[in-house]
Automatic annotation (TrEMBL):
A GO BP entry: translation
Catalytic activity: L-glutamyl-tRNA(Gln) + L-glutamine + ATP + H2O = L-glutaminyl-tRNA(Gln) + L-glutamate + ADP + phosphate + H(+)
Protein name, as recorded: Glutamyl-tRNA(Gln) amidotransferase subunit A
EC assignment: 6.3.5.7
Domain Amidase span(s) in chain numbering: 1-446
Single annotated GO MF: transferase activity
Family per record: Belongs to the amidase family. GatA subfamily.
GO CC, alphabetical: glutamyl-tRNA(Gln) amidotransferase complex
Subunit structure: Heterotrimer of A, B and C subunits.
Origin superkingdom: Bacteria
Function summary: Allows the formation of correctly charged Gln-tRNA(Gln) through the transamidation of misacylated Glu-tRNA(Gln) in organisms which lack glutaminyl-tRNA synthetase. The reaction takes place in the presence of glutamine and ATP through an activated gamma-phospho-Glu-tRNA(Gln).
Length: 451
């Protein structure tokens, strides 16, 4: 009731929830009380969570913040949310996001932007919470849920976590099942939690992760007790500092934050080593070929026949065209056009195939470093703190917006785990985050170091 009250009081301003499921929340909480009374409590018994609108929730609003999924209520539950409910968690509602998870500011949502609960000192300007999991990050930061599910295709868990002073982890590709998660770029998409601290993130990920026969890319490895990794010593650990992440024009503030992180880890007993990831500069351009290519294919299913919105036309082709014209927003259309172009017969080899080759090189960069004994890599999470809603520079040129992902997309291209942790405030008093990148299935090490 306290959380529902907080949502009802704050959501009009923050726009973090697109649906508040009062009745389900109360019914689930009552069932939790009954299990608690019988000493049958699960690991998350009674914990109230917000769910990104990308996860299918049976019989409940699931629209990926898109007009084209108007009215869609799935007849099945995503594996990740089913895992959470099996452990006793309670659903408060569905969280706002960029449309189909395409964006870095939560401004591409059909439901309008999410407002970051943080403000710069002495300023009334509304700031973005980052994206695409902006609703998840804002809801956690504003205490409108105890934790949230999120997804990360190119940074969408880590960048919003950094913008809101929360913790977000994208696990290794294959750690969480993608079953029932609306697909954006299937070879990059991974679910993970956004939480108030590292311990909460560890507890939530343990529950979300599983092998799943319904997702053949999920991996059959036992899920460790991530919480047990907190408090372990950093002595003997090697932390890599990649020189290619010291980008031209990086702000002094981000540089100082990074140095502070290096000092913390050295003081905690870790060995700091300089490393090189030579193909880093190609990651962002290659991502913006691979991700739209996969998106254009995944989004072909929204045709006005199978789900949501239908705009009538004079024949079926006309109906498809009118439905897709009305149902998709600008950024989604841009991605579908780019994706269709790079996959077309004349350009496939020049763009898509080349981007896949670059992807292999990026993956190898990390393999070389990990083979040399590096346990985790420390980088900034984002090039800046949260920016203003309707920021002119970000909105005038999509590439400016895409640059938000410059430190995070490499991790998705290589399928690695990455965690963003709050590490301080900028000169205006806004949160800044650091990112730790781990070995494949090295989530425990990430939790140890992040904690
Ligand atoms: N901001 C990136 C994009 O727009 C990443 C999105 C994501 O991780 N879902 O594609």
């Amino acid at each position: 009731e306290a959380y529902l009250g907080a949502i009802d009081a704050a959501n009009e301003k923050l726009n973090a929830y697109v649906a508040v499921t009062h009745d389900q929340a109360r019914a689930m909480a009552k069932a939790s009380d009954e299990r608690l009374a019988k000493n049958e409590a699960g690991a998350l018994e009674g914990i109230p969570l917000g769910i990104k609108d990308l996860f299918a929730t049976e019989g409940i609003h699931t629209q990926a913040a898109s007009h084209i999924l108007d009215g869609f209520k799935p007849r099945y539950e995503s594996t990740v949310t089913a895992n959470l409910w099996a452990d006793g968690a309670v659903m408060l509602g569905k969280l706002n996001m960029d449309e189909f998870a395409m964006g870095s500011s939560n401004e591409t949502s059909y439901y309008g932007p999410v407002i970051n609960p943080w403000r710069a000192a002495g300023s009334n300007q509304d700031l973005v919470p980052g994206g695409s999991s902006g609703g998840s990050a804002a809801a956690v930061a504003a205490f409108l849920c105890a934790g949230a599910t999120a997804t990360d295709t190119g940074g969408s868990i880590r960048q919003p976590a950094a913008f809101t002073g929360t913790v977000g982890i994208k696990p290794t590709y294959g750690r969480c099942s993608r079953w029932g998660t609306v697909a954006f770029a299937s070879s990059l998409d991974q679910a993970g939690p956004i939480a108030r601290d590292v311990r909460d993130a560890a507890i939530l990920l343990k529950s979300m992760a599983s092998v799943d026969a319904k997702d053949t890319t999920s991996v059959d490895l036992p899920v460790p007790d991530y919480e047990a990794a907190l408090g372990r010593s950093l002595k003997g650990m090697k932390i890599g500092i990649p020189k290619e992440y010291r980008m031209d024009g990086m702000s002094g503030e981000i540089d100082a934050l990074w140095q502070k992180g290096i000092d913390w880890l050295r003081d905690a007993g870790a060995e700091i080593v300089d490393i090189s990831l030579p193909h880093t500069k190609y990651a962002l351009p290659a991502y913006y070929i691979v991700a739209p290519a996969e998106a254009s294919s995944n989004l072909a299913r929204y045709d006005g026949v199978r789900y949501g919105l239908r705009v009538p036309g004079k024949d079926i082709i006309d109906m498809y065209e009118k439905t897709r014209a009305a149902g998709f927003g600008r950024e989604v259309k841009r991605r579908v056009m780019i994706g269709t172009y790079v996959l077309s017969a004349g350009y496939y080899d020049a763009y898509y195939l080349k981007a896949q080759k670059v992807r292999t090189l990026i993956k190898r960069d990390f393999e070389v470093v990990f083979d040399a004994g590096v346990d985790a890599i420390l980088t900034p999470a984002t090039p800046s703190a949260a920016f203003g809603v309707a920021d002119q520079k970000m909105n005038a040129d999509p590439v400016q917006m895409y640059l938000n992902d410059v430190f995070t997309v490499t991790v998705n291209m290589a399928g690695l785990p990455g965690i963003a942790v709050p590490a301080g405030l900028d000169a205006r008093g806004l949160p800044l985050g650091l990112q730790l990148i781990g070995q494949p299935f090295g989530e425990e090490t990430l939790f140890t170091v992040a904690h």
